[in-house]
Structures are given as structure tokens and as C-alpha cells.
Write a structure and sequence with these properties.
single chain; alpha+beta; 14 helices; about 50% helix
Amino acid sequence: MDPIILYGSPFSLYSGRARSYFIKNGIDYREVAPVSRHYEDHVLPAAGGRRSMPTIEFADGSVIRDSVAIVDHFEQENGYGNSPQFPKQKIINLLLDVIGAEGMLRPAMHYRWHFKENEKLVRYQFEHITPIDPPWEFTVEGRFTRMHQASIDLGVPEEHYTLVESLYFNLVRKLDAHFENYPYLLGGKPSVADYGLIAPMYGHLSRDIKPLSILHEHGIWVLRWVERMNRPEPDVGEYDNPLQDYFEDGEIPDTLVDVLKQFAIDFVPETLAACDVTNEFLAAESPAVGSEVVRVSGFGTFTVKGDAMRASAQPFRFYLLKRAQDAYEKLNVSDRKDVTHLLERCDMLPLMSAKLTREIGRNNNLETWL
């Protein structure tokens, strides 16, 4: 059987999620840059016209665009083998998937675009994904300009550099304490949560020059997890009697609670602000059923450690978050009580009520309003 073609790049944030999933689940694939005539003429139209990485192509020519949809497809095929089913682990798995891929954009963008030592490597990488006859916004210079502005739009103007760096440094320390004891986020094997987190941690934060130096100095166990997530074997030689499965009895250790509390500092207030902004957008614009979901619905303002921040509100966050919310609402009374207590400990409970007034679905490889 021909391998799946993964249109992506090592430096692409979201490509890391799909690539790691393929590696850890033994899925045969070949990664190529999205720059060929075949990609332009056949893959891009089938991907809804959205030029984004990753996109995969099967031997029969069918296409799936977006790392979430790719993981969803194979999780359904393999019986949800990367999705723990104990109530607390199930909710935390889904939350960490959102937080990893959508809640770490600030440090990922800051450490790529605001340090000169990265520029040679990043420029080289963008040169190798420049499409055929590109419009200006997809040239190297066009991408550099857009990404610098995107960093500001995501809440990292110069006055917030110190805050973003402090939050990330504390996160690395807490992740390091967790991975010192456990190979993966939820125990002895990877989960969807790990694939969400590997997206920013591989593509940006462990390959670009500046953030890699932070892991070398302060996050050796995190760096080893990044390596582990990109190797087919368990790669757990430094652990004595490592777990083979998720934590017993569906528990969540204190080290992971500490990680979640650190994430909550900015993820929770940003999500609540983005929810309000997006609902205001929906009330004002009333987009047609079936129309493509906007990438940005406005700008939310929120407070982090006493500092007012402003960041673009991205509805896609709520497409993922709704999975955790739906799973939470389906719990029986006893399980919901346990999960509620855990979410309160993690400062995450407000996320369960941060809901849009419209749902988001998918059609023709695009997110659409329902």
C-alpha cells in the first residue's frame, strides 16, 4: 500500500501534531513540502482552497486538511486508542489538546519572531515552502511581515515580552517536573493531549534557536519528551519501571495539576474574552448556515497577572473546546462531581461554560457555521 502523503514541514506548528501521531501509531507516511504542481492543481482544491499545513493525501486522491481532522480520522479508525476513557483523564485529555495547540501560540510566536538568532533558520525554512508563482503574502518577505503582525495580534507586543517569557519559563519548569516522573502527559503512553502539546513544542519551541536554548538549560525532561514523541519506540530508558498505560484508576497526578494551573493563568481569561467577542460577532453578523468560519472574529481584552492584554479571538478554539464541554455534560452525577473538583483545583472550571451561541462543523475540509 502506498504511504500517506503528508504535506507539511518540520518547522510548521500544526504539522507536528499529525507527524507525531503517525510515528507513534505506526502509520506509513511520506512528508513533502506543499509546493508541487500536483499540490496546486489537485490537493489544494480538494482541501477547500485553504493553503495550510498539514494536509494529507491518500493513495486514492482523497484529502484531509487540518491536524485536528487528521487525528480525528485515525482515532476513529483505530478505536480511539490514544483517548483515555476514565472521566477525569478524558476531560483533561481533551482540554490539553485545545490548550497545547491553541493556547500556546503566544510563546510559540514570540520565541520565533522576536529574536534575531532565529532569522537565518526561519528564512531558510520559509524558502522551502514558497508555492509556485506565489502572491506577495506567500513569499518569504510577505510571510515574515504577516507573522510579525500576527505575533502582535496574538497578544505579544513589545510591552508584553517579559510577561510572556515569565509564563513560558514557569510552564517549562512545571512540565519538566512532570516529565521527570512520567514519559507522557497522562502516564505511560501518548494521548491526544500529547499530540496537541507537541505542535508548538516541536515546530517552534524545540527547533528554533532561542527557545531550544531554554530547554537545554531549564527543560531537559521536556526536551526528552519532544524527542520521544517523534520516535516510534517507547524511548523510556531513563525511567525505572515506567508505566505502560495511562495512570491507574483514571487519576491525575499533582505534577499535571501544577501544569494545568500554570496554563490557566492566561488561557482561561483569554478564552472567556474570546467567547464574548465571538458571540458579539455572531449576533451582529449572523453568518449563514454553511458559511466558512472566520479565522478571527475580533479582539478580546483580558487581564493576566495585573496586565491588560489584547489578542485576536479565534472561533476554532471553541470547535475544540466544545468536545471537552460535551464530554463533561454527559458525565453521570458522581463522575461530574469528581471532574468538577479536579477542574476547580486546576483553575479550569470556567472553561466548561465558555460556549458560543452557534456550533461549528466541517464541510469540504473547511470549518463552517451550523
